[in-house]
Request: fold
Amino acid sequence: MNTHETIGGFFGLELPHFANFPLRDMGIAVGSGRQALEFILRNIKEINSLWIPHFICPTVLEPLKRLGIKTKHYSLDDSLTPILSTPLDKYEYILYPNYFGVKSAAVSKLAEEFSANLIIDNAMALFAPPLEQSHSFYSPRKFCGVPDGGIAIFAPKREISPLPPAPNAHEAHFLFTCLSEGVHAASCECEINEARLVHAPIQGMSTLTSRLLDSIDFVAISKRRLENSHYLHTRLASWNRLHVQLTEAPAYYPFFTGLPYLRDKLIDHGVLLPIFWEELLDILPISSIEYKFITHILPLPIDQRLTPHQLDKILSIITSEYS
Reply:
């Protein structure tokens, strides 16, 4: 009998138990997507350089610097597909993000070409299944309310012992603030938690997050996200400069517009839009396609919280500028 087990006493947080997290029992659970990438790199002994796109979160560079891995950059075409002019050397690897969760077709082609020398960044593609021939990593907190969490999946599968879970129950306070007072009230606490994860050493996923993931109905989330994405796509596709393939439930619906001021107009009407990755604007040429991706792609929310009325509000704001 567990000596810490008690009978009776006060009630704790009661949660349902769906246990349908799509990556359950796959790979190694760690503290964040960034840690998952570093964990993969640490366990690829033969890597000496990594090709990364110019359009990528700058924090990706942090584990590369720590591990002394040389970086090389490649460009993207206007559909977010890699432009690669030279074949990889034996000890070179390529990292490709499944942008917004809508580039699974491009991922599959790269996996056929580069096999185990490909690392797939599925931080925005939680529902994209891992490919057997390539490494991949995930970040579930981009899709649901958890304080930490990342999954590292190796190709081929490796026998790697799970890491001890990180203690972080007190870091989840922003979730309770959000529940009781709304997103705006919790935003500062959420940013503090994000900053904590940037500098945290590699640890296992916290017990709290593991339990929270089991309490979320990911089947329903996937269905709702995909429905919401299709709803926006059927009305915006003719104006979208990006060819979008909705094969799995994405993180956002990426609307590549010729009217970048629409971002401010949507925000003024209470539609919260992230901008990926604004800090790159200081180093990218204004004429580059990557610069335009940052300023002209609007990551429209399509998550499971949205109502049909809210989707129609987004559409109304955008279509009023095109009519």
About this structure: The first strand starts at residue 28 and ends at 30. Residues 38 and 63 are 6 Å apart (CA to CA). The chain has a mean pLDDT of 92. The beta strands are 28-30, 49-53, 70-76, 82-83, 92-97, 118-122, 135-138, 150-153, 252-256, 297-301.
